[in-house]
Amino acid sequence: MERETGSRREAVRQAAAQWVVRLDDASCSDADRAAFEVWRGESFENEAAYEREAAAWTRLERVRVYRPADVRIDADLLAPVRRPKLKSLSGSSWARGLAACAMAGLVAAGALSFGTSTAYATAIGERRVVVLSDNSRIELNTDSKVVVRYRKGVREVRLMRGEAVFEAARDARPFVVKAADAVLSADGVSEMAVRLRSDGAIVTVKKGAVELDPTPNRQQAELRLKAGVAAIYDSAGSRSREISDSEIDRSLAWRQGAIALNGQSLEQAVAEFNRYNRQQIRIADPSISSLRLAGYFQTTEPQSFVSAVTHAFSVRAAEGQDGTIRLSRRS
Amino acid sequence: MTHEDEHRRAWFRREILPLEPDLLAYARQFCRDGQSDPEDLVHETFARAIACKTWREISNPGAFATRILRNCALDALRRRKVLTITAVADFERIEPIDEAPGVHAVLESREELQALADAIAELPTQCRRVFTMRKVYSLSPDEIAVRLGLSVSTVEKHLAKGLRYCSDKLGRRIGRRNKVDEGRSWSARRDQDAKR
User: Fold this and answer.
1) CATH number of the domain that residue B183 is part of
2) Same structural domain, B8 and B89
3) ipTM value of the model?
4) pTM of the predicted model, to two decimals?
5) A258 to chain B: which residues are within 8 Å by CB?
């Protein structure tokens, strides 16, 4: 008897999985969609099973980050033995390194003294890992753009928009990040996060050390930033301070697709969510903007955040015609 | 009404689906005599939960879902031709959970990414290849069919099979709660909210 129910459950889930696969295909016909609606309408069992399979399908989107920067498609990429661990993507095979090299427009053996530049960008809500020819890595956050220009004497990356983490690999050439007029030179193997602000940028050094030259055109003292130090620079000047590991982890939670809040105001938290989502949140009532929040949320789930806020505080959420979520005080 | 249906499904996705590993652990307590399948209980719980039209009034989805699961277990017990002593004893022993079993926002961590890749790696070779081309390289089923010399319907079968394997694997994932410390969690506040 029990076995029968088990196979029935499997049959429903199987059908649900087939619909998920079919509906996600761009060539899915209107007739298919109509047939799906009929099937889903047959029972809540079908409806729930579909949501379950669809949720797993969406979660699996994340494996796209394993895709190397080269163009070749490798169906065996996730095969049990040779699958690269995300952390050691940089340690992948020679062949891939060479392919990435070709992609970046570089010629091996330094035959070319001026390489072309390659731009990498992400859309809102997107994240991307780029592995460069020298095994340095760039992880782009939402709505960000970098231009990579590797030349004979220098590895140069310019942060044009948004935020990125740069992991400089060992190489004879210096690794330099340009962001908002300043020049950041990695001292050996290092890892730094750079986020552009309306004026200037904020740099966090996670590993190694970085020389910060806020105004390359003027003679001014350079700032040496060690691991565990964050610096803010803008037209008014620059200042640095030590920050704890957990603070660094929180500021880089986006690498895990999350936003980590630890006492930020509702206003700051909302601004943070709005970076990652087309669906925007607005604070309609200034009296709630200074509420302090803590918590860990998925960047792409503003609904969960809003639901947590309305549960924890006397705050009401209403969705407008254009999809904007408006937060106001609950009376 | 379609708009309202979409809201109801979004609620189910957001609040109920992430509870699957917790619900499965809870369901196992009712199945110690091997006469019921905990996965069936969770499956039925999901079907009953998504049917809830008054979802907006539910302040504690964890308590709501475990209550449904308990009822499902009770119904399964009533349907049985032979009642085992342990099943009845278990039922009386297991208290309903009154607080939310876990934090609702699933932590999307590097470990989760690893778990996803592991699940794909465990698929049979051809299935894994098709799945990798679809999910890692975002190729369409048509393109995959051409590249691998398969029919589109075979590609779709591989994808559905791979998805079934991965969704079960994700649903059984435990230890999620250990990854969440108080600083990252809303549960304290939410629980207070539920106990009012």
Assistant:
1) 1.10.10.10
2) yes
3) 0.80
4) 0.49
5) 107-109
Q: Are residues B141 and B87 in the same domain?
A: no
* Alpha-carbon distance B59 to nearest alpha carbon in chain A (angstroms): 8
Number of domains observed in the structure of chain B: 2
Q: Tell me the per-residue pLDDT of B107-116, one tens digit each, with 9 for 90 and over.
A: 446 677 888 8
Residue B158 falls inside a structural domain: yes
Q: Exposure string (b/e) for B146-158, b if CB count within 10 Å is 16 or more? A: ebeebebebbbbb
**Which pLDDT band, with edges at 50, 70 and 90, does B90 fall under?**
low
> Does a structural domain hold residue B188?
yes
Contact A327, A288 (CB under 8 A): yes
Roughly what angle, to the nearest 10 degrees, separates helices A44-59 and B152-171?
A: 90
Residue A254 has which token pair? 């986006």
- Which of B45, B61, B93 corresponds to the end of one domain? B93
Q: Are residues B130 and B86 in the same domain?
A: no
Structural domain that includes position B16: 3-93
Judgement on whether residues B169 and B190 belong to the same structural domain of the protein: yes
Residue B60 and residue B113 in one domain = no
Q: Is residue B130 part of a domain?
A: yes
Q: Do B86 and B110 share a domain, yes or no? A: no
Residues B84 and B122 in one domain: no
B9/A51 Cβ within 8 A: yes
Each as own residue / partner, the long-range contacts of residues B24-29 (CB below 8 Å, 24 or more positions apart, any chain) are: B24/B171, B24/B172, B25/B174, B26/B66, B26/B69, B26/B97, B26/B101, B27/B69, B27/B73, B29/B90, B29/B94
Q: ∠ at Cα B177 (B172, B183), nearest 5°? A: 155
Yes or no, beta carbons of B109 and A256 under 8 Å apart: yes
Q: Which of A301, A138, A317 is nearest to B108 (CA)?
A: A301
Domain membership flag for residue B98: no
Nearest Cβ partner of B160 from A17, A52, A294? A17
Q: By the CB < 8 Å criterion, does B147 face chain A?
A: yes
In this structure, are B14 and B72 located in the same domain? yes
Instruction: From B47, B66, B93, give the residue that closes a domain.
Output: B93
Residues A41-56: tens digit of each pLDDT = 999 999 999 999 999 9
Determine the 3-state secondary structure of A294 from DSSP: strand
Best to test chain B binding among A12, A60, A310 (most B CBs inside 10 Å): A60
The H or E element that residue A28 is part of is none
Give the distance from residue B34's alpha carbon to the nearest chain A alpha carbon, in angstroms.
9
Helices B152-171, B125-135: inter-axial angle, 10-degree rounding: 90
Tokens 């969770």: give the residue.
B42
